[in-house]
Design a protein that fits this description.
2 copies of one chain form a homodimer.
Chain A: H1 3-6, H2 14-25, E1 33-34, H3 45-62, E2 64-67, H4 69-77, E3 81-83, E4 87-89, H5 92-99, E5 105-108, E6 117-120, E7 123-126, E8 134-136, E9 142-143, H6 147-159, H7 178-192, E10 198-199, H8 204-218, H9 220-224, E11 230-235, E12 240-242, H10 243-254, E13 259-267, H11 275-296, E14 302-304, E15 307-311, E16 318-319, H12 323-339, E17 344-346, H13 357-373, E18 377-379, E19 384-385, E20 390-392, H14 393-411, H15 418-428, H16 438-447, H17 459-464, H18 470-483, H19 492-508
Parallel strand pairs in A: 2-12, 7-18, 8-20, 10-11, 11-13, 13-14, 13-15, 17-18
Antiparallel strand pairs in A: 1-7, 2-4, 3-4, 5-6, 8-9, 15-16, 19-20
């Protein structure tokens, strides 16, 4: 089915043999996507101004609660109007002045500089899903994940060309106490891949640990003017930011590392039942946190974020792939570009319990919308299923191939060989075929994308090969990738320093861990 | 799961009870979509001109083969340059002059005038798939279809709100001889639904029969200035139109009925391995047939069509949902609008053998692209699987719901209650929730689409309900729809006349039928 399976067996074992097979797989990372396809922009200038005005009015009149004494003190010093202890009313001029210092673009650094990513403006990157408390494993069995499972996802992220990051806790390593997990997760991201990664923001102290580990890997001085890690901070919509998220945000900002400022939107439940008004509220929430990053450290990179779903009014369940989510993505893209701030959205979301057709529809609809919306940081790009409750090994590799396909589409139309190809039309003429033409022979590899994980053969051939549905084919592919994984070299001194740091912190941090009971 | 299953059981039997349940289902057809969402247009004016010029040069220099003596005679009379017996070289001025008389828009009439459709410009309609030699039935079993199976698909098309047509041979009724099928198919379309439908073009004589049956249903005079049926004529790419298709085309044009002029593109096999050049060739092919419709009858409506796939260079199999197909759709939409001709594309294509995640990805990617491309006639919008080899009952109803979701997205953002919804933000303030707010209560039904066939519940609830994947849920939905089907009234005299016509023609047409052996 795929290139690995077709590769001839060789008697030579070890690294040489693996390298031979790997040349057939192609694990070379695609550069950050540079979008050339025009975006879908449903709002005209007046409508953008209307959302902006509504959001600013919310910030001025309704205010945003920052449930955190330090943030309130910071805001007071910055000249904000604080009422009822923790309700921050922000004048629109203050907001505009603050967000003006957020960089429109920057380079997101990886430990292997070949994997550095230009970030913002017309660039997009794909980042795997994170945060799943369960996985569907290589046997498609749903169970609690371990640190080894997480390592496998990091290895796959490292090998799949369209994924630009190993992220962080793709799945929760339930075999480690909660209090120590952030250390093991961060080490796994750093160790198993030399692409960019994310940093845990589960508490201010955990975020500090991530900063220290990044300092070991990249150097503290280097971090002062080079973004090397991204962290996510969710808002509690409507209009609340809490102490944990704000503390983690400060830990990142102080070290000049970018935070995704992500209102957590369940449209209709924690926003009005209106697409446009939900965007206005979300925009106000995002702006308030983005502005705060600049209070903490002026000029620090920051990313306009959100988690977007709409809620079923029958069950209260979050939905994905729905039309209003697409529309909100288009609109939010316009707002982020209006403010000249890079932005993050979510890809391949869905509520299916298995990797069935529902999962396919939801993921593809979401991906097409996020690409047409022009998001810079396309998170949850692989593996997400069951409303984020599990990460699926099968879906992980299929989604990654879908990202490669979306990447190709977003690059736009290629005209470089147009005249040459037209000459072929004259050569072939009516009723002929092009398969043997020199232009076809020279160009077919790049001309039309050939997915490995979609089966397009006849049903007879498909049956002869075992009647495998996509889940089974994808799991075979994942197994083959893992079999051929080669760890990217990490400097031994750095590795030892990271392990020493973890050992020290695990001695310091009490292992008491109520949450671990669920494992 | 869906409204029907939740509807309380009633002891009253018969039509009354069915009507009661049907109010819960909502089978009212959505009007033709009026698109307000901006389209994706990858070409600037210069690039459009480049494609146009390349296509015109192909028509002038390479020529198009019309394998049909009548067409050659017609072209000669129209002033075309004929070489090598049947190779028609068309001057660009002649082409432009001819296509100028194609109406940019018209009303597509149904036998129930409430189901008439404005057609062209910013309107889009969804038409089910057609032509499947197999079906996956209500038990998801793949088998040869019968006329009863076809009737069931026509009934579903009648009941599913986002489908605007009952099409024609959604599946091939293998229990009837090929020579008589077109009569039974047309009658089934007309009888089981009062939406618009399609007419068979399997031969010039079959097309004449369709015209006669339409004349019985609508009146021959009415047809003279009202489109009541659409037919599809495929080209043999590269650059050939054959006798069967051209004869059928003439049968439609003479009665002023619109034909879809559809080059059949297998990108890389019968076009150059280049997205832009493939579009130039396809455009030349479509223009040559569109021009010919105006030679047959000036002012006759006609539709710019195509069947689009790219070919796997590994196996020669057609692929779907690939990035280049999306790009070609965007480009062709621009070309059709440049010529001010309504255009047809294909939806929900794919090569999956079952209704697995592959089918979902392929269908949703294709649907998003066709909507963003702005197609007027979105054919193959329900049921397509296995590269068109089977129509799936389960997929049929899921695709139709996806069309309803795409419809909502393409309508764009609604601003009508923006200020009212913003007032709710002030009412609720930070940390509250909107579920009980009067605005939410008043608007939630329309605010956010709630798919019936996607399961967004928790895994515990899903398991308690039987762990049904989408195929099973969709088949339940299809069964319930069919149980509650009510036939739309057809005038008894018209019905009798149609049946008389069929009986007469079945006496006249020999029932010899080699193809029927495969049933």
């Amino acid at each position: 089915m795929n290139a690995i399976e077709e590769a001839p067996r060789t008697r030579r074992g070890g690294r040489g043999a693996r390298r031979e097979i790997r040349t057939a797989i192609d694990t070379k990372m695609l550069p950050a996507l540079k979008r050339r396809l025009p975006l879908v922009e449903p709002m005209d200038g007046d409508q953008i101004a209307r959302i902006d005005d509504a959001s600013m009015a919310i910030l001025e009149d309704v205010g945003v609660v920052f449930r955190d004494p330090q943030a309130i003190a910071d805001w007071r010093a910055a000249g904000a109007d604080i009422r009822d202890d923790d309700r921050v009313h922000l004048d629109r001029n203050l907001v505009r002045e603050l967000i003006a210092s957020i960089p429109e673009s920057f380079t997101y650094h990886a430990r292997n500089s070949a994997n550095n990513l230009p970030f913002g403006k017309d660039h997009s990157i794909f980042v795997p899903m994170t945060g799943a408390p369960y996985l569907r494993d290589l046997d498609d069995k749903r169970r609690g994940p371990t640190l080894d499972d997480l390592a496998n996802f990091h290895k796959l992220a490292h090998m799949l060309p369209a994924l630009h990051s190993s992220a962080h806790h793709i799945v929760e390593p339930m075999d480690h106490v909660v209090a120590h997990r952030h250390l093991r997760i961060t080490y796994s991201s750093m160790k198993h891949s030399d692409k960019t990664f994310m940093g845990m923001t589960t508490s201010p102290k955990n975020a500090e640990d991530v900063m220290e580990m990044c300092a070991i890997l990249f150097g503290a001085d280097f971090m002062e003017d080079h973004p090397v890690v991204t962290g996510n901070c969710n808002g509690n919509s409507p209009l609340v930011w809490d102490e944990v998220m704000l503390g983690a945000m400060r830990a990142f900002c102080r070290r000049n590392q970018p935070v995704l400022c992500s209102p957590f939107v369940l449209g209709g439940a924690n926003t009005p039942a209106s697409t446009a008004a939900a965007v206005a509220q979300l925009n106000a929430e995002a702006l308030s946190a983005l502005a705060y990053t600049q209070v903490v450290r002026k000029g620090c990179p920051a990313i306009y974020g959100h988690y977007l779903s709409t809620v079923s009014m029958k069950s209260g369940a979050p939905m994905a792939g729905t039309p209003e989510i697409s529309l909100m993505n288009f609109m939010i893209g316009q707002m982020a570009r209006y403010y000249r701030i890079p932005w993050r959205t979510s890809n391949t979301l869905g509520g299916a319990k298995t990797f069935d057709a529902q999962a396919g529809y939801e993921s593809a609809s979401t991906m097409m919308a996020t690409l047409m919306a022009g998001a810079n940081y396309i998170w949850h790009s692989a593996g997400w299923n069951e409303a984020g409750m599990h990460c699926s090994m099968a879906k992980f590799v299929v989604d990654a191939e879908q990202c490669a396909m979306g990447y190709r589409m977003a690059e736009g139309v290629k005209w470089d060989d147009f005249d040459e190809a037209l000459a072929a039309v004259r050569d072939i003429g009516p009723g002929g075929h092009y398969l043997g033409h020199p232009h076809t022979q020279a160009r077919f590899q790049e001309a039309f994308f050939m997915p490995e994980l979609f089966d397009n053969n006849s049903i007879e051939q498909w049956m002869a090969e075992g009647s495998h549905e996509i889940t089974e084919r994808a799991l075979n592919h994942a197994r083959n990738l893992l079999k051929n994984y080669e760890e990217p070299r990490l400097d031994e001194g750095v590795d030892e320093a990271l392990r020493d740091y973890i050992a020290r912190r695990e001695r310091e941090i009490p292992a008491v861990d109520a949450l671990n009971d669920e494992y």
